[in-house]
Design goal:
Blueprint lengths: L2 E15 L3 E8 L3 E7 L18 E8 L4 E10 L2 H4 L2 H17 L7 H15 L5 H15 L17 E5 L4 E4 L10 E2 L2 H12 L12 H18 L5 H9 L6
Parallel strand pairs: 3-5
Antiparallel strand pairs: 1-2, 1-4, 2-3, 4-5, 6-7, 6-8
Helix pairs in contact: 2-3, 2-4, 2-7, 3-4, 4-6
């Protein structure tokens, strides 16, 4: 017999079902990623019309059936409406949602990923941060939460502490003596290494408290692009759109 449960989470994806219904994917604090049906949510007078759109964050009361969830009510705390006023930030936001949807699992503890997603969207709404930096921080912290972070606190080969190179194939930073053994290694600044270390080790709530110069940002972008290609290897549709429009919506 079914029961009602209340979860706190964010709408990641929405798909129209039939004439008036929606099927949504939620990332929740209590049950990880889950799929739920919202009956009549596409009707103009539905109380669930806005609550079942991407980015909506709040409490969702769900009826838990034998094989599916149904949205009964929702109390939304943040719609992230300011993203809609900035097309560039919106593209980044949809990429973050798709990234989380791909990486998260049902009935898994995804509280850190939910916090990361929420804080990253807030950072996109702020004029204090370059959207490119927000993306780099989000990507690095997301793979760290998933246990796939690069090795950056000592040399990947000899465990030395004098770091100045990065090898995607070796999975992390290298020292001057060891980089010659990694043909793909490229030089990175000490500030870039420190930024990697900080993002991996910092609490999610403390992530968006710094800025970097353009050189460090370019190095972060370059190494993360190759790192994700090798260790995640998933073609995100929203990322393709984001990169195609980046020339118009940088920063």
């Amino acid at each position: 017999m079914g029961q009602n449960i209340t979860v706190t989470g964010m709408v990641l994806t929405v798909m129209p079902i039939g004439e008036y219904d929606k099927r949504i994917t939620l990332l929740t604090r209590e049950r990880g990623k889950l799929t739920a049906f919202a009956r009549g949510a596409r009707r103009p007078n539905s109380q669930l019309l806005a609550a079942t759109n991407p980015f909506a964050f709040g409490e969702f009361e769900l009826f838990e059936g034998r094989s599916s969830y149904t949205v009964a009510r929702a109390s939304i705390q943040n719609y992230f409406r300011e993203l809609a006023a900035d097309p560039g930030a919106t593209y980044y936001g949809f990429y973050f949602l798709e990234f989380a949807e791909y990486c998260c699992q049902e009935n898994n503890d995804e509280r850190e990923m939910l916090k990361l997603l929420y804080q990253s969207l807030r950072a996109l709404e702020s004029s204090a941060f370059d959207n490119r930096l927000v993306r780099a921080v989000f990507e690095l912290k997301a793979v760290s939460i998933g246990g796939q972070e690069p090795h950056v606190f000592s040399c990947t080969d000899c465990q030395g502490s004098e770091l100045g190179w990065f090898s995607v194939r070796r999975g992390g930073a290298l020292c001057e003596a060891c980089h010659a053994k990694a043909p793909d290694a490229f030089r990175v600044d000490a500030s870039t290494i420190y930024t990697l270390q900080y993002v991996i080790s910092a609490r999610v709530e403390k992530l968006y408290t710094f800025t970097v110069n353009e050189r460090v940002l370019q190095q972060l972008e370059a190494l993360l692009k190759e790192y994700l290609r090798m260790y995640l290897g998933h073609p995100f549709r929203s990322l393709k759109i984001l990169e195609e429009t980046a020339v118009y919506f940088s920063g």
